[in-house]
Amino acid sequence: MTDLRTYKPRISTWWWTRKRSYTVFVLRELSSVFIAWFVVYLILFVYAVGQSETAYRNFLDWASAPWVIALNVLALLFVLLHTVTWFSLTPQAMVVRIDDWKVPAFHILAGQYTGLVVVSLFVLWLVTL
Amino acid sequence: MTSADSIQLRVSRYRPDTDAGPHWQEYEVPLRKEWTVLDGLNHVKNEVDTTLSFRWSCRMGICGSCGMNIEGEPKLTCATFLSDYAPGPVTIEPLANFPVIRDLVVDLSDFMAKLPRVKPWIIGAEDHSQVEPDVEFLQTPGQLDAYRQFSMCINCMLCYAACPVYGLDPEFIGPAAIALAERYDLDSRDHGTSQRLDVLGAHDGVWACTFVGECTKVCPKHVDPASAIQRYKLKTALHTVKAFLLPRGAR
Ligand code: SF4
Ligand code: FES
């Protein structure tokens, strides 16, 4: 084969700003950081509850500091973004066939949101008990 | 000259023997309702500048050779109308993520090397019980339907041009190759799934994909490579779990 003198354009660090869908993708990936934060938050919370009543009160005081609230609101937004975008991708990843019938994407989506509502209600019932 | 009946093409040029890198060149072509971007380029080639290089063949969305980046989006130029970009200019670049050989011609040898690795052909049962030459392989419409979508690929490489993962990590085997692997996996006549899993479960296989989903959006044939890749992830994961839990014979 003859030697090809080719050139390959370099990909800029900012490639993900070029297109809306790329940006949404990068934000979705970034949301994992906030999910990790929620996990840490939950562990701290459970730990405080397990310690003593004062530890629990201290935790509540700390958790009501403006920066913690702001962080949690931001994290919630990212988690919602993650959930919605991820749910909408699921029908592509999971193709359910019953005999020769392909379950429509809408049913899979509806199933996920129903699951989310059921789990949320259960958690709500658990914490307000 | 810019007028309503003409449109400017802003074309990326690169001649390997004289140019250090790509540069822009502008051409003015007639704007006709039925003209595609490819018609515009052919007009330039025939009437204005014979040195311009680009690939095409069928000019009807079948051969997959006319893919280019139009206004930054990977498109089949024979299926993209100039009038959609009026009043212009229209930027025309070679397909992204591939080395450029000349002007709008890219080097596809990377894909050519990757494609056979996923064994995109029907692999018979090992005991040859099903490959008697006089046996007809019947398939129900439902069985055909299971893989038909993935068999529509024309190897146009638009999905590779749209994929940031492939752009950043050229080792990634890529959307079309995986979609073709899935096409044969889902075929009721095929028995090659485990052979393909070995290739696609490797680090440069399906796990390199982070599900950006652009491959599916740009595919002119509605192949949905993103779906093929995620379904493969599920398959490889299940396979690993099974290999871990079940004794050898039961897999
Ligand atoms: S999957 Fe679609 S975009 Fe990718 S090569 Fe095949 S036809 Fe082209
Ligand atoms: S020229 Fe064949 S697909 Fe465009």
From TrEMBL, chain A:
One of its GO terms (cellular component) is membrane. It holds the Pfam family Fumarate_red_C. This is Fumarate reductase subunit C. It comes from Petropleomorpha daqingensis. The lineage of its organism: Bacteria, Bacillati, Actinomycetota, Actinomycetes, Geodermatophilales. SUPFAM superfamilies: Fumarate reductase respiratory complex transmembrane subunits. The keyword Cell cycle does not apply. The keyword Protein transport does not apply. Keywords: Cell membrane, Membrane, Transmembrane, Transmembrane helix. It comes from the Bacteria. The chain crosses the membrane at residues 21-47, 67-87, 108-127.
UniProtKB/TrEMBL annotation, chain B:
Its cofactor is [4Fe-4S] cluster; [3Fe-4S] cluster; [2Fe-2S] cluster. CDD domains: fer2. GO terms for biological process: respiratory electron transport chain; tricarboxylic acid cycle. Binds 1 [4Fe-4S] cluster. Binds 1 [3Fe-4S] cluster. It catalyses: a menaquinone + succinate = a menaquinol + fumarate. SUPFAM superfamilies: 2Fe-2S ferredoxin-like (SSF54292), alpha-helical ferredoxin (SSF46548). Pathway: Carbohydrate metabolism; tricarboxylic acid cycle. Keywords: 2Fe-2S, 3Fe-4S, 4Fe-4S, Iron, Iron-sulfur, Metal-binding, Oxidoreductase, Tricarboxylic acid cycle. One of its GO terms (molecular function) is 3 iron, 4 sulfur cluster binding. Residues 144-173 form the 4Fe-4S ferredoxin-type domain. Residues 9-98 form the 2Fe-2S ferredoxin-type domain. Its EC number is 1.3.5.1. Belongs to the succinate dehydrogenase/fumarate reductase iron-sulfur protein family. This is Fumarate reductase iron-sulfur subunit. It comes from Petropleomorpha daqingensis.
